[in-house]
Design a protein that fits this description.
Blueprint (H helix, E strand, L loop, with lengths): L1 E5 L3 H12 L3 E5 L11 E4 L2 E4 L8 H9 L18 E5 L2 E5 L1
Parallel strand pairs: 1-2
Antiparallel strand pairs: 3-4, 5-6
């Protein structure tokens, strides 16, 4: 059987992976030249901006997804704790969140 996935964001790529695991012949279409949706990056003037999550919520979801394919997240990426986690900028000045 064949499946067509529109969009190469996290949901589209996850769906494609599970369908391929079940034996489907999967085609993923994406309008950009790389991952789509919240998986994209935007580069401008030497800076890179993530278009999606800036911190790692629900690690158990990622661990289960990778385990479903006999892998671990650490097989593909390393997480580094940020200090501060993020800063919120107000007119009176920034507030750092640990």
């Amino acid at each position: 059987m064949k499946a067509l996935i529109i969009g190469a964001g996290f949901s589209g790529l996850s769906t494609a992976a599970y369908l391929a695991k079940q034996g489907y012949e999967v085609t993923v279409l994406e309008k950009h030249d790389g991952p789509g949706g919240r998986g994209r990056q935007w580069k401008k003037d030497g800076y890179t901006f993530d278009m999606g999550p800036s911190w790692y919520w629900m690690p158990d979801v990622f661990e289960k997804f990778f385990a479903d394919f006999g892998k671990k997240p650490s097989d593909y990426y390393q997480l580094d704790r940020l200090d501060p986690s993020y800063s919120v900028f107000f007119e009176a000045g920034p507030m750092e969140i640990p």
